[in-house]
Amino acid sequence: MTKRLVVRKNRYFDSVFLMRIARQIADLPGIRDASSLMATEANRRLLADLGYGIGGLEQELASAGPNDLVIAIEGEEAVVEAVAADLDKWLYREAAPGMAADIMPRSLDEALALRPDATVAVISVPGEYAAREARVALSRGLNVFLFSSNVSVDDELELKTRAREKGLIVMGPDCGTAYLCGAGLGFANAVRRGSIGIVGSSGTGMQEFVSLVHQAGCGISHGIGTGSRDLLDVIGGLSTLTAIEALEADPATKVIALLSKPPGPATMAKVMQRLSACRKPVGMCLLGVGAEDMQVKPGSQARFAPTIDAAVGLAIGAAGEKLPARLRVDLASLEALAAEEVARMKPAQKWIRGIFAGGSFCYQSQAIIREAGIEVHSNAPVPGAPALNDPRMSFEHSLVDMGAEIFVEGRPHPMIDARLRRERVIREGGDPGIALLLLDFILGAVSSKDPVGDLLPAIETAQAMVHEQGGYLCVAASVCGTDQDIQGLEEQAGKLRKAGVLVFPSNAQAALFSQRLTLLLWSGKKGR
Amino acid sequence: MMEKSLVEMLAGEPVFINIGVRELADSLREAGFQVVHVDWSPPASGDLELAALLDLLL
């Protein structure tokens, strides 16, 4: 095995493009690993940690700056050298199809000269530059969708304060998705337009909400992302409040949903007060927060929803429609199915393992499973849940957010690249105590073109490993998306079913099934 | 340049400027929306202090 660094001076490529190149190189026979990064200080540190800072490579690494592209390859020497010698083929073959012959301005101001009527800046530059670009966009009167992460809290507060003063909004930072007038931004699903508006600080949670609304035959007026920190007291819900006010004023929006993780106490009070006064019906789903903590004024139109599904039910009801039967929980059927599954297991099989691409799914699953008094460990624990000592190692019942910082540093998000999730699923299959594997699959324009196909070989390996030990691995999953997404909801779900995976209509139902199965596992009713 | 508040923007047809990941512009364009993609590179050769200084001067 050998390691090789190639530096290209003054060549900037965006991170998604570079991730795709790295993945393609890493998939070559004879290649063990590959990274393709702009040589920022953080990325140079990352490469040094991966062993590229020693053995004669340190000078080359140190010579690269943030404007330079660096490609790091590890594998069999002949293959590594062949790839290094022919890098242009990778960089420019891939670049060509996307390089449309349209006019390419080099700055926001040049773009504004072309389209002075622009209203939204979509910003996804590296975090250290993102606040600067957002500041310029706000000063030019643009609303901002800030996909970039690694923006400081201070910058976020300054940007959002400035935006609110001007009647503009900053969606983000780290804003996974938004829907503005039918345009899906970021990791958006293809959904029809309608009368339901949503404000959300959780990207995959919003994807689930809009997908279920679409599946129920209704549609979305607008979906406004706020960034995961917006409801912390340090930010004070600045974007959430702007978004609620805008949806309240918007004639196309008949009902509003609010979806987030638990807010800070001061912000919670502020948001509840605002929602109490809202002139439109509101469904509030603050994952991990009970109804008793959401105090709205008597007579208000705001209602509590414990899950994303319940928020969908409230929104659809307020819009005058009925929830389809498949989206309603049938607890008796879930319990009967859980009993059938448990009957196939060995007594030693005790633990559930959730390996998630979506942070909101990891979060919601914990909240639902814990409701039955089951202790679940996580690297992104809900309030009161124990944290995993090491996110890379499951312990007893564990639900893991594979989109957490530790797993995505220098790598694509698991919604784009399933590599780490594949490895983790196989590792879980090797644990003699595993009983249930809980998974999510997320469709959409920017996601992997085949999320199920990416993970299926690992699922089958894990199933076979447990089978070889005389056990049976139950695999439960939900697919977030619609029939209009490029991956196709039914095609993806069908592949899972064919592999013996139990596919539920939503993450909440998959989590509730997991809860019932766990209760059975621990009630001594298993074994053949 | 025309400043449009969030409320006004939602009432009309949004026009986007995309700075960063090109795929985000491509998916908007494919869905039929107006978008201008900026061929972005780090300001002042990636020197953030110099970039901040230039921002003050310009």
Task: Describe the fold and architecture.
The complex is a heterodimer of chains A (528) and B (58). By secondary structure, chain A is α/β, with parallel strands linked by helices. In chain A, 41% of the residues lie in helices and 19% in strands. Chain A has 19 helices and 19 strands. Chain A has a six-stranded parallel sheet, with helices on both faces. In chain A, strands 10-9-11-12-13 form a five-stranded parallel sheet, with helices on both faces. In chain A, helix 7 packs parallel to helix 8. Chain A is globular, with a radius of gyration of 24 Å. About 2% of the residues of chain A have low confidence. With 58 residues, chain B is of the alpha+beta class. Chain B is 43% helix and 17% strand. Chain B has a two-stranded parallel ribbon. Chain B starts with 5 loop residues before the first helix and ends with a helix. The relative contact order of chain B is 0.14. Chains A and B meet through helix 1, helix 6, strand 4, helix 7 and strand 8 of A and helix 1, strand 1, helix 2, strand 2 and helix 3 of B.
Kindly name the structural category of chain A: alpha/beta
Characterize the quaternary organization of these chains.
heterodimer
Radius of gyration of chain B: 15 Å
Distance between the termini of chain B: 18 Å
**Strand content range of chain B:** 15-25%
Helix/strand order of chain B: HEHEH
Radius of gyration based on Cα positions of chain A: 24 Å
Shape of chain A: globular
**Relative helix content of chain B:** 40-55%
Number of strands of chain A: 19
Helix content of chain A: 40-55%
Tell me the distance between the termini of chain A.
Answer: 48 Å
Strand fraction of chain A equals 15-25%
List strands and helices in order, with pairings.
The complex is a heterodimer of chains A (528) and B (58).
Chain A: E1 2-8, H1 15-26, E2 31-38, H2 41-52, H3 58-63, E3 69-75, H4 77-85, H5 87-98, H6 108-114, E4 120-123, H7 127-139, E5 143-146, H8 153-166, E6 170-171, E7 177-180, E8 183-186, E9 193-200, H9 203-215, E10 220-225, H10 238-249, E11 255-260, H11 265-276, E12 282-286, E13 302-304, H12 308-318, H13 331-343, E14 351-356, H14 359-370, E15 377-378, E16 398-401, H15 405-408, H16 419-429, E17 434-442, H17 451-468, E18 474-480, H18 489-498, E19 502-504, H19 507-521
Parallel strand pairs in A: 4-5, 5-6, 9-10, 9-11, 11-12, 12-13, 14-16, 14-17, 15-16, 17-18, 18-19
Antiparallel strand pairs in A: 1-3, 2-3, 7-8
Helix pairs in contact in A: 1-5, 7-8, 9-12, 13-19, 14-19, 16-17, 17-18
Chain B: H1 6-11, E1 15-19, H2 22-30, E2 34-38, H3 48-57
Parallel strand pairs in B: 1-2
